């Protein structure tokens, strides 16, 4: 049995959060996802698009004290770099820029903090 299917995560407490690379985050509605994909749907290596920016979501199992990363892609692997590079180009094409190590959306560009 996989520890990252929608059915398992629901039975295990149901607390799953999504996070996107630009910093958006929120709780996952597992019931809505089950209605759409079924209980056997596995969150491992799934990268759905973020609702608020051109980035992609990754998932964390928050049923234990330490959130468990459900995304299995190894950081710094060739696959990870290709994925990161592709996402970066997509974000930059949509007007996003990295400032102080964080992604800044195009809607904040005209704001001046002084
Ligand atoms: Zn986002």
Write a concise keyword list for the protein shown above.
alpha+beta, 114 residues, 26% helix, 3 helices, 4-stranded antiparallel β-sheet, binds zinc ion, two-stranded antiparallel sheet, globular
Q: What is the 3D form? A: globular
Kindly report the spatial arrangement of strands forming the biggest sheet: 2-1-3-4
Question: Helicity range of the residues?
Answer: 25-40%
Give the quaternary arrangement of the chains. Answer: single chain
Radius of gyration: 16 Å
| Overall pLDDT level | 86
Catalogue the unreliable spans.
none
Which ligands appear in the coordinates?
zinc ion
- State the end-to-end CA separation: 54 Å
Annotation, overall tally of beta strands: 6
Strand content: 15-25%
Instruction: Tell me about the largest β-sheet.
Output: 4 strands, antiparallel
**Structure class:** alpha+beta
Number of helices: 3
**How many domains?**
1
Q: What is the chain-wise order of helices and strands?
A: HEEHEEHEE
């Amino acid at each position: 049995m996989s520890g990252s299917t929608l059915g398992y995560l629901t039975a295990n407490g149901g607390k799953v959060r999504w996070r996107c690379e630009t910093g958006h985050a929120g709780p996952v509605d597992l019931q809505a996802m089950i209605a759409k994909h079924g209980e056997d749907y596995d969150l491992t290596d799934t990268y759905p698009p973020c609702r608020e920016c051109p980035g992609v979501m990754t998932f964390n199992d928050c049923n234990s004290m330490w959130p468990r990363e459900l995304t299995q892609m190894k950081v710094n692997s060739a696959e990870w770099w290709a994925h990161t590079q592709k996402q970066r180009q997509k974000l930059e094409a949509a007007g996003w820029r990295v400032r102080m190590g964080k992604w800044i959306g195009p809607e904040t560009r005209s704001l001046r903090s002084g």
